[in-house]
Amino acid sequence: MKRVITAVTTFATVGLLAVGCSPGSSGGSASSDPKTFEFWSFTAINQKADVDVYTKAHPDIHIKLTEVGSTTETAQALTTALAGGKVPDLVLIQGDDLPKFMQSPDNFVDLNTLGADKIKGDYLDWVIKQPTTPDGKIIGIPTDVGGMAIAYRTDLFKAAGLPTNRDEVSKLWPTWDAFMEVGKRYVQKTGKAFVDNTPTSVFFQAVNQGTERYYGPDHKLSYDKNPQVKDAFDLTLKAFQSGISAKQTSFSAGWTAGLGKGDFAVVSSPSWMLNQMKTNAPKTAGKWDIATIPGGSGNWGGSFLAIPKRAKNPQAAWNYIAEMQSPAGELAHFLSQGSLPTTPSVYTDPKLVGRTDPFFSDAPIGKIYTQSVVNLKPFYIGPEDGTIGTELLNTLTSVEQGKVAPANAWNTALTNVKNAIRG
């Protein structure tokens, strides 16, 4: 839920008003009251809903929630706080931002001291490894993963003479090249754009489906020579030049409006995006359905809850983590918000497997999204992953906006990445 342009880093997804004091204000952490703790989250993921669930079950607990900003802004605020400012008791860290904090694990409480060693087996192996240090310290507990799928408008597909049944639609695009061909058929038939944009709906899906991304198996930077990254980048340019894109940057005002107006027919939708689509385009209920992503599997998103070392109330924060990120807690969150659990024990739970969503034509979202991640072979995510992803996506967005010529895009992106990393 960054890693991308500010609007896109707000992944996972419906802004809420921030509650509590702002990060960077003077003073210590929220309170020395053991029943009060301060929680920093990023916007657009409806964290307040989870806080309300917890405080309703524990009315004696007071949580001061601050929605700091995008995932990038939240990570930046945390970096500043860890350098000597006010730290929260609990903080949400987006997956691509986590590696930078893993370079200084002593800034955080080793959650094994609070009980993480007893529950680490509850989580997908490749996910719990990310917040685990080489010597076994655990500095974060995963909240969700972002299984991939494609949301599509059945009414618009029907008008274009395309099939509307989700199984038939999935068969239309076993590959991204096939996806583009369907898009060109749609544009030719309707005169309208097919996909919301290519940077996030094509590039960020394809680049997250490989066996290696911006770092090699030796944990050294490889973004500029990894053919999988270049192939995903070139694929995105090809998709843009095919004329299928509405050129609406994800999560922008134009994108939000376009969801409701039918300005595009498909959106690459990780599980955490479903709730945002419902919130931003409520009048389109029943017009969407969910099909398999080209390539069949992959992950986009995921976050971790961590406790800074100088937190005033680490036990209260841990109690929240242990309850809300338990298998039962993550299942409940999926049922209410759509974020895919990181706890595989619930992947066979009838509540998850049988979960359908009327907004998406009763698509079996539990089954579709778990199938997207169960056989995933993860790649190493390094300290500069977020920065690299941001610059690659920004360049592709500039191509869509007519600011960078497609022929110059790759070299421009590499220059921007190198400048950003040096900076």
Topology:
Blueprint: H1 6-9, E1 36-41, H2 47-57, E2 62-67, H3 71-82, E3 90-94, H4 98-102, H5 116-119, H6 125-128, E4 141-147, E5 150-153, H7 154-159, H8 166-172, H9 176-190, H10 199-206, H11 227-241, H12 253-261, E6 266-268, H13 274-280, E7 288-291, E8 299-306, H14 314-324, H15 327-337, H16 350-353, H17 365-373, H18 385-400, H19 409-422
Parallel strand pairs: 1-2, 1-3
Antiparallel strand pairs: 3-8, 4-8, 5-6, 5-7
Helix pairs in contact: 10-11, 10-18, 11-18, 18-19
Describe the structure concisely for a colleague.
By secondary structure, the protein is α/β, with parallel strands linked by helices. The protein is 41% helix and 10% strand. Strand 1 (36-41), helix 2 and strand 2 form a beta-alpha-beta unit.
The tally of beta strands, per DSSP, is 8
From the spread of the alpha carbons, the general shape counts as globular
Major beta sheet, strand line-up: 2-1-3-8-4
Instruction: Report the uncertain regions.
Output: 1-31
InterPro entries: Bact_solute-bd_prot1, SBP
Organism: Micromonospora zhanjiangensis
Protein name: ABC transporter substrate-binding protein
Pfam families: SBP_bac_8
